Each structure stands twice: as C-alpha cells, then as structure tokens.
Amino acid sequence: MKTAMSIKEISSKLKTIREPDDLFLQECREDSRKGVTDLVSKWQRAYEKERQVKDAFTEMTEFERQLRKQGFSILAGIDEVGRGPLAGPVVTSAVILPESFYLPGLNDSKKIPESKRELFYEMIFKEALSIGVGVVHSEVIDEINIYQATKKAMVAAVNDLSELPDHLLIDAMELDVPIPQLSLIKGDARSITISAASIIAKVTRDRMMKEYGEEYPEYGFGKHMGYGTSQHLEALEKHGLTPWHRRSFAPVKEIAARTKD
Asked: What pLDDT score does 261 carry?
C-alpha cells in the first residue's frame, strides 16, 4: 500500500467501499499484513451476502415486471395469515407497491424475525401506494368454514384499498372478483407484492392476538398467536373456551362438547 495506514484506519475506510474493483480495495489486497488480509476477506463476504440478497429481491420482482410489460400498472399483492390457529381471526392484506419499491430481505413473513417484521411493516406502510386489510372473526369462520372465510377476508382487503387495482397477485387462491389475477403457490416467497401483503397481515394479526392475550392471559395468545401449542391446549382443558376460539376446529370442538355435557 502506497501510504502505510493503520489496521484501524483501513477498517474504517473499507466500510465506505461498495464495489469490488475499487482502487483502495485493490491496494488492500496487495497488503501482506494478516490484519488487512482478514479485513479484505470480511469485506468480500459481506459484499457477496449483500449481492445475494439483492439478486433474491430482483428475482421476486419477476411476476410484477412481466405484468407491467403486458400493460398492467396497479398491481395488488394479497396474502392471508391465520388459517390454522384454534383461536383468533383470519387476517388478510392487499398491498399496492410503487414500481420503484426496494426492500432487500423481503420474504415470507414467517421466515422473518419479529423485530425485522415490525421494521418492514413500517417501511411498507411508508412506501406503499395503498394498503387494505380484511379481518374475519371466529364466529364467521365457524359458520362458513376457514377456506370461504379466507376468501371473504381477501375480498374485503381488496375493497379496503384506496384505488382499484388492475391486476391481483394472490398466494394460492382465486377470488370471485372482476379483476385479472394470478394465483401463485408459495407466492409470499416468490412475489414482492404478495410478500409485502404477508408482512402487513402477519403483524396486524399478531398485534390483535397480543391484545387478546392481555384480556385472557392464561391462554398465552401473545406467544403462540392462537396455534395449538401444549400451553394453549392445557389452558383450554382447564379454563374452557374464550369468545375468540373457533368452535368448528378440533380439538376445540371436542372440548366444547365435553364442557357442555
């Protein structure tokens, strides 16, 4: 290196480097000091990881890019959370993102840690052109079944948007609405608009379940979000049902029958 910089100075400088062909980085590669060699290796690993995240995000925009080439411009991604729990609502979201939207790391909400989901939730709300939410509670789920309740919530989320989309991207569902749509298996990991909807729906439902957990602390809703954990099943056996439980779901149905007897 032309000017002998300390390891600390080089470390600080490398944090500002963004491209692998940067002249300073090239000079660092020629520095024989082990500390510098380690710093270069660390920079390279971070660069590769960042590039992989960017590439993954670009791959998740493929369906949106193809639809825009076909002339569609107002694309709404739709996803649901809460089909499987024993308690609580099914919550859906419809999200319309600007074409310039960029949020590397966006993925299926279940694969993202809670703290990061909360951050992404705020960022999506800030950047989205429109967000709609649909909520269908347990009594309706019991009345029409979870599949129909999910579709009902999804339609409600679309109707909650501030503007009418000209195309829908939906996670593994088809809706009875007069809007062109694309149903994608595991769409929350394949499309950025569906993934964004997944984040909104997940955070919205989790917050609701935490509120229910404060009202009924013995059930632990704030921890398991209504899923059938051992804590939840033990509480059901001991305390019975709450207004939020799905009485058509096993084993809630069986416990309700025994309680009635």
From this structure: 46
